Amino acid sequence: MITWPEEVISAIARRRSVIFIGAGASMGSVNGRGDRPPSWKKFLEDGIERCPPPHKEMRALLKNGDYLSCCQIIKYKLDNEWVPFVESKFLTPAYQHNKLHEAIFSLDSSIILTPNFDKIYDNYATNQSNHNQNLLKIKKYYDDDIPRALRGTGTQRLILKVHGCIDTPDRLVFTREDYADTRNANANFYKAVDSLIFTHTFIFIGCGMNDPDLALILEQYSRSFGAAPPHYVALSGKATPEYKRLLSNNYNLKILNYSPANDHAELLESINHLYELVEQEREALAQSTLW
Q1: Nearest-angstrom CA–CA distance, 75 and 24
Q2: What are 202-233's pLDDT values in tens digits?
Q3: Which of 127, 164, 197, 263 could form an SS bridge with 172, CB 3.0 to 4.6 Å?
Q4: Do 240 and 46 form a contact (C-beta atoms < 8 A)?
């Protein structure tokens, strides 16, 4: 099980954390037919099969791990069929939330960032927030009132969808061209994310380091201040000392290892334990009034 650093517990308890939910957090979700959301690779494989031939170039890009370029060509080839294809993979299957989503929500972080454009976590959080009478705002990278949403209130919670939402598929950040256009047209959004990187502790759950935006933001943070406190990423399996050093030196990230056995059961167990630790810390803070 993950041994949670005191900094993580304290940051979440004081609501000075940002929980970053990647696609891996949705892999345990299913719909009424028992289907699960596709991985990035599976989505591209299905997209290639749907495209008119030839497929050789797309398959070569996929094999070489150039997912963004592969996706770009699929989008070009599908043309008017691109949006229906994306919706068929992420909207119409109606995936349900899973236990990991519940555990993450229980931490009651005031800000959730996610590159996921499905609505699995959003729908669960909305239902729970309505029940708890909290105000939940869901904002996309192109919304112009993000600074107001980030300022928040005592009862507000925020989900910031950094790559857009399936509700507006034409504005999803999905291809190499999308990434370039978004960084140019929405520079103020990235300034807002930069401010969070400097003022909050990030905990990355269910994601790797293959998001170009994420890598660029963290690289800039790690280079700006040599003594900056680290952020944390939960990763399955064992990491070599060299890989840990790479993440630390380039992104100022500390790895929190857990076993991937039994469909990542240890991650869920660890976050449930983190909830207990955070609640204990909040009780201690309430008694000491040292918020």
Answers
A1: 23
A2: 999 998 767 676 777 788 778 777 678 999 99
A3: 164
A4: no
Dihedral sign for Cα atoms in the order 81, 171, 233, 112: negative
Each residue's pLDDT tens digit, 233-270 = 999 988 899 999 999 988 899 999 999 999 899 999 99
Percent of the chain with pLDDT over 90: 65
Strand order in the sheet with 231-236: 135-140, 156-161, 111-114, 17-21, 201-205, 231-236, 253-258
Query: Which distant-in-sequence residues (6+ apart) come within 8 Å of 73 by Cβ?
Result: 57, 58, 61
Are 201 and 8 a contacting pair, CB within 8 Å?
yes
Sorted by where each starts, the structural domains of the chain and their CATH numbers stand as 6-29+96-288 (3.40.50), 40-90 (no CATH)
Query: What is the H or E stretch that residue 246 is in?
Result: helix 241-251
Measured distance CA(220)–CA(268) in Å, rounded: 31
Rounded to a whole number, what is the distance in angstroms from the first to the last CA of the chain? 29
Residue 118, CA distances (Å) to 76, 154, 182, 232 in order: 22, 27, 19, 24
Would you say 192 and 150 are in contact if contact means Cβ atoms under 8 Å apart? yes
Residue with tokens 């990434």, as numbered in its chain: 179
Give the orientation angle of helix 120-132 with respect to helix 99-106, to 10 degrees.
Answer: 50
Phi, psi at 189, each rounded to 5°: -60, -45
Q: Is 131 exposed, middle or buried (0-12, 13-18, 19+ CB in 10 A)?
A: exposed
Tell me the pairing of strands 201-205 and 17-21: parallel
Tokens 């807002």 label which residue? 192
CA atoms within 13 A on the CB side of 148: 6
Task: Inform me whether the pLDDT recorded for 180 exceeds 90.
Answer: no
**What gap in Å lies between CA 109 and CA 14, rounded to an integer?**
9
